[in-house]
Amino acid sequence: MKEELSSIKDTVKIPFAMAVDIAEMQIDGGKVLSGRLGVVQGFLTYGFFVVIPDSATAYIVLVDAYNGSVLYVSDKVSVGDLQFMSLPFGPAGANLGHGWPMKPRCSGPVVN
Q1: Is 16 helix (H, G, I), strand (E, B) or coil?
Q2: Which of 24, 19, 27 lies closest to 46 in space, CA to CA?
Q3: Best CA proximity match to 40, nearest among 87, 106, 108, 101
Q4: How many helices (H) and strands (E) does the chain have?
C-alpha cells in the first residue's frame, strides 16, 4: 500500500486546483462543473466536465496529472446530453481511451 501511494505521489505533480484552471482556460467562458482523477490509457489523468453556463453547452477536457498538458478537448455537446455520458475512467470507459462520444449508459428517453 505504501508503494502504491508513493507511486501516485510521484505520478501526480499537478494539483487538482491547477488542473481545474488549465481545463477552464481551454474553453472561452468555461467553468468546471465536475472533475476527477482517473486512469486513461495507463496514465493518471484529470477528467473535467467544463460548461458554458450562458449557452447550456459543455465539453470534456482531459489534463495530464504529471505535467499539466491538455490531452483532449471534446466537441461541444448539449448539457442535457451529459446525463448519458461519463468521464472515461472506470469500467464503463476503461476500453474507450479518451475517445468521444462515449457510449450512453442507458438507451431510454430523457425524463425531466
Answers
A1: helix
A2: 19
A3: 87
A4: 3, 5
Give per-residue pLDDT as tens, 44-69: 999 999 999 888 899 999 999 999 99
Count of structural domains within the chain: 1
Query: Cis omega before residue 101 (within 30°)?
Result: yes
* Residue 73 domain boundaries: 2-93
pTM, rounded to two decimals: 0.70
C-alpha triplet 99, 102, 103: angle, nearest 5°: 135
The conformation of residue 103, written as its DSSP 8-state character, comes to P
Q: What angle do CA 48, 66, 30 make, to 5 degrees?
A: 25
Closest CA to 76 of 30, 9, 19: 30
CATH (domain of 89): 3.10.450.40
